[in-house]
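Supplementary Methods, section 5.1.

A reviewer requested that the exact input to the structure prediction be made available. We therefore reproduce it here, unchanged from the version used in the analyses.
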Amino acid sequence: MKRQNAIAAPLSGFKPEHFLFSVEGAMATVTLNRPERKNPLTFDSYAELRDTFRALRFDETIKTVVITGAGGNFSSGGDVFEIIEPLTRLEAADLHAFTAMTGDLVKEMRACPQPIVSAVEGVCAGAGAIIAMASDMRVAGDGAKVAFLFNRVGLAGCDMGACAILPRIIGQGRASELLYTGRFMSAEEGERWGFFNRLAAKGEALKAALELGEALNAGPTYANSVTKKMLQMEWAMGVDEAIDAEAIAQALCMKTGDFRRAFEAFAAKQKPVFGGN
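The structure derived from this sequence is encoded token-by-token as follows.
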């Protein structure tokens, strides 16, 4: 079944204003590109990232998304002078509009069917840490460090879904420590705690993330999108409800050509080549 949307697709020719976007084969790469400031986010880049991930829902040519940062850092978070300082002058309604918009970025990352892999080098802090957290998988280069800095600027750790998502990745106690203290978590600690799926040499995180993306591209596209959807939906389900929901989801996957191709390849003692449906 084709995805329906008024936005033109595919995104292969998309040229955003506030970050880099490239497509090679079935993989899209988003590069946060303000290296002189460690790739901070602005009001405009938040919004454009949100809209990009929404558009990805409707692009059937892209199977996987990799997010990285230019210049040896992932992202230092919200720009101090272009976001933090202006926020101190806004009224409550405008502040809520901003925090809802940033939360919508995480919602769109979770809603797009493509698995998202973050390639983290150097500093990954504040909203940058949230983007990495909201990804499906994370790869760290040696020396990378992650911090949820919100309490260091007088704010709560409950930002953009952190109190809901981070404990599910690393556990309640570890998440509490990071959110209460705002301290940096090293790449090695993050891998040990389950935040990072794998480690790479310094400067090699993007290469490792692209290799992981290629492995995902070789898998069954529709089935992978169902896995992502169920991982999200089942947070709010009891075990019995989850089992029932998975029974329906798996039955749908059994009607795909990929399921038939996998059987035929197994019978012929060959590696399956999935066709995306």
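The CA atoms of residues 103 and 161 lie 7 Å apart. These observations are discussed further in the main text.
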